Amino acid sequence: FHKPVNVMDLVRVMDELSNRSQPEPYRVLIIDDEPDVATYHAILLQEAGMLTAQLSNPAKLRYMLEAFRPDIVLMDIYMPGCNGRDLAKLIRQLPDYVGLPIVYLSSETDRKKLFSAMQVGVEGFLCKPVVPEELIAAVSIRADRMRILRSRMVRDSLTGLLNHTAITQFLENVLANAERQHTELCFVMIDIDHFKQVNDTYGHPMGDQVLLALSRLMQQRLRGSDIVGRYGGEEFAVILSGVSMVEAWKVVDELRRNFGLFKFKTPQGTFSSTFSAGIASCTRHATLTDLREAADRVLYRAKRNGRNQVLV
Ligand code: GH3
Ligand code: MG
Ligand code: MG
Ligand code: MG
What we know:
About 50% of the residues lie in helices and about 20% in strands. Strand 11 (about 265) and strand 12 (about 270) form a beta hairpin. It has a 5-stranded parallel sheet, sandwiched between helices. A 5-stranded mixed sheet has the order 9-10-8-13-14, with helices on both faces. By secondary structure, the protein is of the alpha/beta class. The chain contains 11 helices and 14 strands. The two termini are about 35 Å apart. It is elongated, with a radius of gyration of 24 Å. One magnesium ion binds near residues 34, 76 and 78. Keywords: Nucleotidyltransferase, Phosphoprotein, Transferase, Two-component regulatory system. It catalyses: 2 GTP = 3',3'-c-di-GMP + 2 diphosphate. This is diguanylate cyclase.
């Protein structure tokens, strides 16, 4: 996974993770040269709770994909000046959209022509005039699968937190926002202490339990607006927006104290674990690299200083 993650996707994932808002409605892009036809389909989908956008000018396709970020594209095959086959082919060539579901909505009944139009990577076909229930089912099943795939791409598989790529991308974005709005932002690097020993003594699966415990604690104790990611093996990153260094320190130090109270029971006995953390603020480190390096330096100071502590 090399492509930068779209921030819209991240926001949705964060909403899901924090359980704060209703899941966002599916977003359906409808491409048809006849506005009335497109509007009819749009209304059917809207009544089923989905968000729609219509496109009649294929030249605006790329812009529309970026701006609307559809979960699925419904398109006509025959349109003046271009055809659905070419548009579908174009979408499949964009690295960000290789997995985007595309469904034709057409009155074409010639099987050979249809098959040829689908060969560019279109997985569905609905015949016009469409049966409303069939349209809604065909769209929601595919949109749902797209959502699942997208959220998998930005998540770490063990903990469900944002993965390294996603948290980095998120940081870049909130940093730009913080600069524009002159708000504070703290970046926190957390690293579990002597984690190798945990694995060596109690086994790798027990190590995973420790990682999970810390992840859950962070998800529970941080606000929905705070962003938590698994930065690497036993390293975590937190982005705290709109808080000062002092406030950030209080939050992370409380996490540290709570984490230290956990008791992990194993056949070889009970143990507890600690972490060290370094915090850097965007007021002193304005660029992404600066901020990350600063947090990293502070973290290693905390390690050298004896571990189980949060430094700024
Ligand atoms: P320090 O206090 O200096 O951070 O020491 P440490 O032992 O925590 O650091 P070190 O970097 O030496 O070891 C990190 C260990 O984390 C090594 C690696 O095997 C383990 N690790 C990384 N990812 C995972 C994982 O997903 N699960 C488990 N169980 N262990 C992991
Ligand atoms: Mg047409
Ligand atoms: Mg480490
Ligand atoms: Mg460590």
